[in-house]
Amino acid sequence: MSSVRTRRTAAASLTLVAALGLSACGTGFDTAVNQQYQAAVGADNREGEVEALHTLVVADEGSLEPVEVSEAEGEEQETEAPEREAAEAGVVAVSLVNNGEDDAVLTGITAGEVDGEQVEVTGPSRVRVPKGQLVRLGVDARTLFAVSPIAAGRYVELTFSFADGTTVVVDTPTVARGDQDVYESVLQSTDGRQPADRDATGNAEDADSEETTARPE
Fold first, then answer.
1. For residues 131 and 213, is the Cβ–Cβ distance under 8 A?
2. Peptide bond into 149 cis (omega under 30)
3. In contact, 137 and 145? CB cutoff 8 Å
4. Which of 17, 45, 115, 143 is deepest in the core (most CB within 10 A)?
5. Is the pLDDT assigned to residue 35 strictly greater than 90?
6. Any idea what DSSP says for residue 206?
7. 67 confidence band (pLDDT: 50, 70, 90)
8. Cα(83)–Cα(85) distance, rounded to whole angstroms?
């Protein structure tokens, strides 16, 4: 009798789990497909001595579209909040972590195609990543790499090239800057970008870096 009750309880539990799973899939699938993708932490590549962590392209905010107001006589005027045009450029935001025995020097970033159109990346000619340290790109003018044309909600393949001939490739999501200040620390593509032929690290101790003794999660 006890074994029969146990089997019935197990069967009922499985039925309940299956029903909940199907319900969650039905709701979650439509939501995921219909909503624009917003990555919280970006994409990672941990395969080499220099790791690319939380890699994103943050799209510029875009310009405001003018609002047309009806001026027909006797018609009550209505005002609407202006809408922003879609941005066509963005900025690479990534944390480069050097786990190697020597300093690494980033010499450029290239991009693949999106919808058959070649994406261009412009930025400084050199960014030093000291051994055992982390350098963030996109948070100041010395490490600003602009990406164009690009639109939020798409992926673009970015290749990070280093002076020693190594490369790091990341299939990178593009996200909208948004209204929640999630990406407030990331510059826009027009924010004080210096000429691409200048060394982003200057004469000496270079771009801002952080010492790290453990891999960031």
1. no
2. yes
3. yes
4. 143
5. no
6. -
7. low
8. 7
- pLDDT tens string 76-130: 555 565 666 677 999 999 999 999 999 999 999 999 999 999 999 999 999 999 9
How far is 81 from 137, CA to CA, in rounded Å? 34
Please check the confidence at residue 181 and state whether its pLDDT lies above 60.
yes
Please classify residue 104 by burial: count the beta carbons closer than 10 Å to its beta carbon, then call 0-12 exposed, 13-18 middle and 19+ buried.
buried
- How would you class 161 by CB atoms within 10 Å of its CB: exposed for 0-12, middle for 13-18, buried for 19 or more? middle
Separation CA 81–CA 78 (nearest Å): 10
Which phi and psi angles does 90 have, rounded to 5°?
Answer: -155, -175
Contact between 174 and 90 (Cβ < 8 Å)? yes
Record the tokens describing residue 206, joined without a space: 């270079």
More confident residue, 79 or 33: 79
Q: SS3 helix, strand, coil % of the chain, rounded to 5?
A: 15, 35, 50
Distance, CA of 2 to CA of 7 (rounded, Å): 9
* pTM passes above 0.70: no
Per the structure block, which two tokens stand in for 145? 């790499």
